From TrEMBL:
Organism annotation: Psophocarpus tetragonolobus (Winged bean)
Pfam families, per database record: 2OG-FeII_Oxy, DIOX_N
InterPro entries: DIOX_N, IPNS-like_FE2OG_OXY, IPNS-like_sf, Oxoglu/Fe-dep_dioxygenase_dom, Plant_2OG-oxidoreductases
Gene3D superfamilies: B-lactam Antibiotic, Isopenicillin N Synthase, Chain (2.60.120.330)
GO molecular function terms attached to this record: L-ascorbic acid binding; metal ion binding; oxidoreductase activity
Domain (Fe2OG dioxygenase): residue spans on this chain: 207-307
Listed name of the protein: Fe2OG dioxygenase domain-containing protein
């Protein structure tokens, strides 16, 4: 990544939401309140309980007899939703369970212990918060720890928790298994775009895997705050492990918020803005947000997967020409990240990538 410091590559420090919640307040501090009128409306869109995020079965993608049908489902999932629940993905149940446990145990530690991994000036890595640049900005009802996991030389081990004791080895194992899933699901995503060569998916073998672990404490006024403000991810693809047994993650579909019902053993996969660009906008990086719960704490483990830094980010040749024009610019990896970290938080990042 570019060595020049850019404005969103670090965040000002904010209070721990877990500590706030522990005091058992009956009201939420003003800095977290999103509905100024107190009418409980967050965002402009209603939610729709009758819509469900599609499912994709990796076994069916691999099996020659079922592949075509499943590729067609995958195509529609990426085009119409930008998100799907992936089952039979190959990450072992033990790895998923261990990862969830370690993250929960980390967030259960006393604040002082978690602060040993606190973000340092000028970096988003570590325990803290992302994209907070001013004291009067509204805050998310969320604590997080963000760690670069792959390639191995990107790890800042001084920020990796040593407590709980199995945290590091569990995260190492998890990131390796997630990398395998990423390479294969990206291969099928490009196949569903009609591209047969594996150059794009192979770009994820030496790719970057950054993991954000989120804790959403119970909130006395859940309908007035957000766990994470609506956004699309700047990744190639994002793979999310939802550790709760109630919904918290929502995707925007046809101007309605749709809950992701957590399914044990499934991984939620959403298209990131890099695949949106590569696919020349055929596949969309969907807007999503997290809501919070009055009684229960929720954890999620989110892997942002990027192709290796030598890959240019632009629409692939096969999807332009013969009357199809490029909708997005072609940028180097460094230019893409520079634009991302210097973006204006009030403007659409993806629009800034349009030709
Ligand atoms: O925790 C969630 O459900 C959403 C997290 C998310 O969207 C993110 O970290 O980018
Ligand atoms: Fe996200």
């Amino acid at each position: 990544m570019d060595s020049t410091q850019s404005n969103l590559e670090s965040s000002i420090s904010v209070p721990s939401v877990q500590e706030l919640a522990l005091q058992g307040p009956d009201k939420v501090p003003e800095r977290y309140i999103r509905d100024e009128d107190g009418d409980g409306i967050i965002g402009t869109y209603p939610s729709d309980p009758n819509l469900h995020v599609p499912f994709i079965d990796m076994d069916k993608l691999v099996n020659a007899d079922t592949q075509q049908e499943e590729l067609q489902k995958l195509h529609l999932a990426c085009k119409d939703w930008g998100v799907f629940q992936l089952v039979n993905h190959g990450v072992s149940t033990t790895t998923l369970k261990n990862m969830g446990n370690q993250v929960q145990r980390f967030f259960e530690l006393p604040l002082q212990e978690k602060k040993r991994c606190a973000q340092r000036a000028g970096s988003l890595e570590g325990y803290g918060q992302a994209f907070v640049t001013s004291e009067d900005q509204k805050l998310d009802w969320n604590d997080m720890i963000f760690l670069k996991c792959l390639p191995i030389q990107n790890r800042k081990l001084d920020l990796w928790p040593q407590n709980p004791p199995a945290f590091r080895e569990t995260l190492e194992r998890y990131s390796e298994e997630i990398r395998k899933v990423t390479i294969s699901i990206v291969k099928f995503i490009t196949m569903s775009l009609g591209i047969q060569d594996t150059q794009i998916s192979e770009g994820f073998r030496e790719g970057l895997y950054d993991i954000r672990m989120n804790c959403y404490p119970p909130c006395p006024e859940p309908e007035r705050v957000l766990g994470i403000v609506p956004h699309a991810d700047n990744s190639g693809i994002t793979l999310l492990l939802d550790c709760a047994n109630f919904p918290g993650l929502q995707f925007l579909k046809d101007e309605k918020w749709v809950n992701v019902e957590p399914i044990e053993g499934a991984i939620v996969a959403n298209i990131g803005q890099i695949i949106e660009v590569i696919s020349n906008g055929i596949y969309r990086a969907p807007e999503h947000r997290a809501i919070v719960n009055k009684l229960e704490e929720r954890f999620s483990i989110v892997t942002f997967c990027y192709p290796n830094p030598h890959t240019n980010i632009g629409p692939i040749d096969k999807l332009i020409g013969e009357g199809k024009i490029a909708v997005y610019k072609n940028l180097t990896h460094a230019e893409y990240f520079n634009k991302f970290f210097n973006r204006n938080l009030d403007e659409s990042f993806i629009d800034s990538l349009r030709v």
